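tool_call: predict_structure(chain=1)
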Amino acid sequence: MLLSYYQHTFIEAGCDEAGRGCLAGPVFAAAVILPRDFHHPLLNDSKQLKASQRDELRYIVEKEALYFAVASVDNDEIDKINILKASFKAMHLALEKLQQQPEFILVDGNRFYAYGNIPHACIVKGDGKYASIAAASILAKTYRDEYMQQLHAQYPHFGWSVNKGYPTQQHRDAIREFGDTPYHRKSFRLLPDDQLELEL
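tool_result:
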């Protein structure tokens, strides 16, 4: 069962991102402040759930959260500042958009750039440990998937409706055949040197 909060004193927001390992599209991040007693049996790290479960949880999180916000940083910005900085920037943008500023921030992962002077804790695999981070992972993932689904209509060859921009065999085969798009991250190695790549 996920823990409700990390500390008892301050208003706490959970943060997570989606799309760091993708070859195309923005990185999305969400910040969520949940009620202290929030619990839902389905809530978990978004990667452990089916798409239908994530969609159901997105509705629940948006309805039950005290405050939530989602933000993104596009592929051009990712190429300029690098994906790690872009992930932190997306989290900062999501935090800025919250109607209530938190007094403490819980972040999924092992690194974070401080947001103003608000204290934070980095939690490795935090989306499987704390409800607010899991809720943020659900929002970041579902908003990003929706965005890539819309892009798929413009660029159907790449299979973004299925792979969401991750480096699958289909995605890389399409890059070989059709070249890249304005949504690809040019700073990423879009094609491996080794042509005998296994399906991810």
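agent: The chain has one domain: 12-152. Proceeding to next step.
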